[in-house]
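Researcher: Here's a chain I'd like modeled. Treat it as a single chain, no partners, no ligands.
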Amino acid sequence: MQITGASSLTNAGLRIPPHSLEAEMALLGSIMLRPDAIYEVVEIVGTQSFYFEKHRIIFDTMLELFGKHEPIDILSLSTRLKEKSELDRIGGTTYLTELSSTVPSSANAKHP
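Model: Modeled as a single isolated chain. Structure tokens:
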């Protein structure tokens, strides 16, 4: 897993914060596989913890569903994202399916 560090510079000389696409995908996929994992995750992760915008959108939507005591799965996520006109922005249901299939187990959702 490659983690881009804070020492990385853009062409404009601005520092890029540390981030890991794989870790973000694993966390979101873990929550989709085991929605009750959000109880553990919500204590230490917030929407702004995600570097990638589509992951912030997905996690924010997961929090919305969680707050309404609705299921957190591909169907409910895609429905809510479509209602908010965000589904295409995050890559559609194909990307949500990819997230859930990148994680062999949700056992380590708290520590991806």
